[in-house]
Amino acid sequence: MTKALSDPVPLPLARDTPFDPPSELRLWRGEGPLRPMIFGDGHVGWLATRHSTVRTVLADPRFSTRIEVMHPPIGQRLSQQTLTKLPGFFLREDPPVHTRFRRLLTGQFTVRRMRDLEPRIEKIASDRLDAMEKAGSPADLVEMFALPIPSLVICELLGVPYADHHRFQKDSATLLNLDSSVEQVREALSDLMGYLRELVAAKRRDPGDDLISGLVATGQLDDEEITGASVLLLVAGHETTANMLALGTYALLDNPEQLAALRRDPSLVDSAVEELLRYLTIVHIGPVRTATEDVELEGRVIKAGQAVTLSISAANRDPERFEAPDDLDITRQATGHLAFGHGIHQCLGQQLARIEMRIGYPALLRRFPGLRLAIPPQEVEMRSNMAIYGVHRLPVAW
Amino acid sequence: MRINADTDRCIGAGMCVLTAPDVFDQSEDDGTVLVLEPEPPEARRAAVRRAVQVCPSGALSLS
Ligand code: HEM
Ligand code: SF4
To answer: How many structural domains are present in chain A?
Structure first.
């Protein structure tokens, strides 16, 4: 059932296979670079599916990310009526507000700073593997390994007590669940804000050498701003890498020849990480930007106020950019993928995420040479209803 | 080849450091780009071109 190219379409989420984006996206990408799209709140905007278009828009300062002009690609819940503005939530700010926060934080996330964390992350990974081994086969990889590692790391970095992880993991799962009601989202957000607000106040009284204390010490942000930035870092910092670790392992188990290649030659891990980022593109909805003036693009006019969904999932499978894009090939040069976004909002935590994966996958494979799925593949529950794609659980045996 | 880096545009994503580690570094203070070799030798130019291409903020240019 093909629709006329001018009919606004909703963003598809349902997939035929666990690792490939919805098949409509591939079809539409072949038909044209832009297509009218109907957003979750009824707004008619655009959907971009090609690598070059997506990259162009993400780098164009005429497009805004501010919550005030934003339309949610799916569902109602993130529209401006339902979500009040959070000071410090700089993913939803344009320059110069964005620049101010990003500048204060980038010094904390440099390549070198992240490499200094390597021994700590290795220790955390090996402790988790010990616990998993002790618990015995089979085990849920998400619960035992994929979620705790990034969670422990971001907690240490921010100075958030890991003992409270049930509380913020529950809130952040609610925030990322597309089926959560507006009420549930509000409640989760206010709980998380309340929790971090107290923590920021405590650090003001009694600073440590963690990132939140560091932000307090700059004297350039007030407590509400630091609280908002911490919410962003805490949520963005654990669910994302957690899903890459679990879904990436599943993808390797599903591609035994790739898994064997990585086991044979561990020096492939860097390119394997980039390729898994590209192939899986767990940020499967958006990002979204809104034109602040009329913009001519690919022979169309995006009117001021119109939103564009930039499908990085589709862009990362664009045959114009990647040869045999639907193959997982850990030896390919996947850099230039858009899994971390592009432009001034490109992921702040990307170097941390890379290191967590570069340590995580090989540690897991070394520990369990016989690692395999403990359930039939069709029973693995995929996170199609979450803002971050992945698996809800991954029972594995060894 | 000469590398021009606009630290006002740089967002400190570190892609340049990953792509051409001998040529780029990041400042300890604000994470913005530091060019270690503004006039890179032939052997490093291909990596530098790739770094300019992947830089998400358009902070790097060649002249
Ligand atoms: C594999 C894991 C990850 C993926 C795939 C990922 C993906 C992304 C993407 C696509 C964006 C851009 C969103 C947009 O343009 O609207 C982004 C932004 C961001 N990410 Fe990540 N991320 C990951 C891990 C992390 C980690 C570990 C952290 C924190 C420590 C983090 C913190 C952030 C922040 C703060 C932003 C907003 C940056 C800004 O607005 O300037 N992310 N991420
Ligand atoms: S890649 Fe570009 S934005 Fe990132 S640190 Fe280098 S110059 Fe700055």
So the answer is: 1
Q: A336 contacts in B (CB within 8 Å)?
A: 53-54
Q: Distance, in angstroms, between A344 CA and closest chain B CA?
A: 5
B12 lines ligand 2 (CB under 6 A): yes
Does residue A3 fall inside a structural domain?
Answer: no
- The arithmetic mean of pLDDT across residues A269-292, rounded, is 96
Does residue A127 carry a pLDDT above 90?
yes
Among all residues of chain A, which has the CA nearest to that of B53?
A336
pLDDT digit string, tens, across residues A181-213:
888 888 888 898 999 999 999 999 999 888 899
User: Counting beta carbons within 10 angstroms of the beta carbon of residue A382, is it exposed (0 to 12), middle (13 to 18) or buried (19 or more)?
Assistant: middle
Is A54 close to ligand 1, i.e. is its CB under 6 Å away?
Answer: no
* Per-residue pLDDT at A80: 44
Residue A4 domain-assigned (yes or no): no
**A115–chain B Cβ distance below 8 A for any pair:** no
Domain harbouring B39, CATH code: 3.30.70.20
Q: Please report, for the domain that includes residue A103, its CATH number.
A: 1.10.630.10
Instruction: Give the relative orientation of helices A211-218 and A148-158 as an angle to the nearest 10 degrees.
Output: 30
* Structural domain for B8, as ranges: 3-62
What is the domain range of residue A13? 9-397
pLDDT category at A239 given cuts 50, 70, 90 is: confident
- The C-alpha atoms of residue A201 and residue A199 are separated, in whole angstroms, by 5
Q: What is the arithmetic mean of pLDDT over A223-251?
A: 92
Look at chain B and report how many structural domains it folds into.
1
> Is the CB of B26 less than 8 angstroms away from the CB of A103?
no
Rounded Cα gap, residues A392 and A142, in angstroms: 7
User: What ipTM was reported for this prediction?
Assistant: 0.81
Q: Which residues pair with B61 in a beta bridge?
A: B4
